[in-house]
Amino acid sequence: MALFDYLCQLYARFLPLRQRLIKLIVKNTIFRFTFFTINSIFARNHLLLFFDFEAKSLENITVNVSSPRISVPVIALSLYAIASGYLMSMIPLMLPHYGLESSLASWLASAFYAGLLLGALVVEPFVNRVGHRIAFVWCLVALMLTIIALPAMHIAEVWLVARFIAGAAVAGVFVVVESWLMHGDEKGRAKRLGIYMAALYGGTALGQLGIGYLGVSGGVPFIAIITLLLIASTVLIYGDSDQPSTQHSSSLSLKQVFKLNHAALLGCAVSGLTLGAIYGLMPIELELRGINHTDLGSLMALVVLGGMAVQPMVPWLSKFMGRTLLMAMFCLLGSAAIAMTLLQSGIMMLAASLFVLGMATFALYPIAINLGCDKLDENYIVSATQVMLFSYSIGSVSGPLIADWFMQRSQGLMGYLLVALLTTCLYMLMASMKTKRQWVAGE
After folding, report:
1. With 0-12 CB in 10 A as exposed, 13-18 as middle and 19+ as buried, what is 408?
2. Is the full-model pTM beyond 0.85?
3. Rounded to whole angstroms, how far apart are CA atoms 138 and 127?
4. What's the CA gap between 308 and 81, in Å, rounded?
5. For residue 398, how far is the Cα from the chain centroid?
6. How far apart, in whole angstroms, are the C-alpha atoms of residue 179 and residue 225?
């Protein structure tokens, strides 16, 4: 309770509310969250024990998911993305302020994505047990605790563990939201994924601007990030929205996993290889080029805005060409953008190239996951998104470490991204030419 009172006093200093009112709001939120969690875990078992017939009847009742209401998870995701975008770009820059080596940045990024990898493996039973809404809130709570640990303990090992746990929590967020939005009619999946990506990348882009406005030192950045995550949790607890039924979710067998589209799995992995390096090391790459923190935040925002801008184009382009070929096209586009940064060094050219690079790299994941879930039974959606996130996580863990090797040499981060995208482009072109079916829309 001492910690609870301290947090209320801290927020009372920054918010124009009375301390008693803050306590009332927080206690009410905690009560509702605890009640919904316990109810989601035990309610179904209780019904099966005492009202077996009624429970079976209830299980047969299905909600119309042809046009699910997705405003609550999208709003919560947007708030999370703003906080996460600010935090991800802030961590590499704030290390010297806490007496930590800048070389720790790549290891922190890899620790985060290693947690993402582990979370992708274990989160499915948790989501099926408590439901999408409560699982989302618990993941945000775990993430907040890891963020509080960073300014509290200036020890490299503690930061590595905190980022690892944060990665596992973020894996839960991604699996929950992606499987939430992938349920429903297949025709609307591309549109819902576009909304998901726009919310994620738009929020991340806004978060980058916090570097210039709030800075990277002191307690204000952490207070801002925690506040955003608390608001996101409140939206999930109080918001009214449909959520998928998890009672009939099934897991993919190992044989079924290997039968998933290989281009989709590789697309997710390459998305992790590139985005993991961009999030973890691009701020350092730009700083080495002599970019000040205000312009650095704007340039990072341009990368994410490029990713946001391309999302409406992906469903439209999918109507005219196969998804495998579409991934090849975006990889080629990203390679061209990187080549421009290597040939010319002006800041305007750098800004334009980073915007196009963002379009290319951020387009891969939604195309790949849509391809992987194509014609898949809805019972396997949660499991399939878990597999796709697992592939993404493998790339995300490896990306910063491999990119760090390039940064120790003359090629830099851009050289690493060029190699990754060009290689993927060649593979996707060969995969799309295997059969004529893969050239047509939706294949």
Report:
1. exposed
2. no
3. 10
4. 12
5. 17
6. 25
Three-state SS across 353-416?
HHHHHHHHHHHHHHHHHHHHCCCCCHHHHHHHHHHHHHHHHHHHHHHHHHHHHHHCCCCHHHHH
Cβ atoms of 389 and 120 closer than 8 Å: yes
DSSP characters over 100-145 = --TTHHHHHHHHHHHHHHHHHHHHHHHHHHH-HHHHHHHHHHHHHH
Length of the chain: 443
DSSP 201-261: HHHHHHHHTHHHHT-SSSSHHHHHHHHHHHHHHHHHHH--------TT--PPPHHHHHHS-
Six token digits for residue 385: 């998104």
Q: Which domains does the chain have, with CATH numbers?
A: 69-243+253-439 (1.20.1250.20)
The residue type of 386 is Q
Beta carbons of 263 and 327 less than 8 angstroms apart: yes
Give me the chain's average pLDDT, please.
77
Q: Is the pLDDT of residue 53 over 50?
A: no
Nearest to 263 by CA among 49, 429, 147, 61: 429
Name residues whose C-beta falls within 8 Å of residue 405's C-beta, 6 or more positions apart in sequence. none
> Which residues have a Cβ under 8 Å from the Cβ of 269 and sit 6 or more positions away?
391, 392, 394, 395
How far apart are alpha carbons 167 and 190 in whole angstroms?
Answer: 26
What kind and span of H or E run contains 48?
helix 19-50
Instruction: For residue 94, give every residue at least 6 positions away whose Cβ sits within 8 Å of its Cβ, in sequence order, or none.
Output: 216, 217, 221
8-state DSSP, 196? H
pLDDT, one tens digit per residue, over 364-389 is 988 888 887 777 666 677 777 778 88
- Under DSSP, is residue 64 helix (H, G, I), strand (E, B) or coil? coil
Q: Which of 129, 115, 122, 65 is nearest to 386 (CA)?
A: 122
CB 233 within 8 Å of CB 80: no
Q: What DSSP string runs through 263-309?
A: HHHHHHHHHHHHHHHHHHHHHHHHHHTT--HHHHHHHHHHHHHHHHH
* Distance from C-alpha of 309 to C-alpha of 388, rounded to nearest angstrom: 23
Instruction: Name the residue with tokens 């699982």.
Output: 135
Q: Residue 47 corresponds to which tokens in the numbers above?
A: 């019904």
**Distances in Å between the alpha carbon of 4 and those of 30, 149, 187, 361?**
12, 16, 47, 42
- The residues near 214 (Cβ < 8 Å, ≥ 6 apart) are 86, 220, 221, 224
Provide the residue type at 71 as one letter: S
Reported as a single tens digit per residue, the pLDDT across 392-403 is 888 887 888 888
